[in-house]
Amino acid sequence: MPNIKSAKKRVKVIAAKSLQNKAANSQLKTEIKKANAALENNSADKAVAVRVAVKKIDQAVAKGILHKNTAARKKSALDKKLHASA
């Protein structure tokens, strides 16, 4: 356990940020799973589901949760599945 005041604060801040990152990551994964399920089931709103997932991916990059190349790879995979099923 830290003794210095600033180190104690860092522990608190890191814990709070970790919770925020974990929640954002969970939402991101949920949206990607929804998009993949919509593509697999060939549902009518699959394009909308992919658009929402891509938006979440972009938001994760803006927040620093995902690297931009990882985001590009995930978006490309979704786009590829969307156009393959069309």
From TrEMBL:
Record's keyword annotation contains Lipid biosynthesis: no
Family matches, as InterPro entries: Ribosomal_bS20, Ribosomal_bS20_sf
Keywords: Ribonucleoprotein, Ribosomal protein, RNA-binding, rRNA-binding
GO cellular component, one term: ribosome
Keyword Transcription regulation: no
Pfam families given in the database record: Ribosomal_S20p (PF01649)
Stated role: Binds directly to 16S ribosomal RNA.
Family as reported in the entry's similarity comment: Belongs to the bacterial ribosomal protein bS20 family.
Protein name stated in the entry: Small ribosomal subunit protein bS20
UniProt organism field: Neglectibacter timonensis
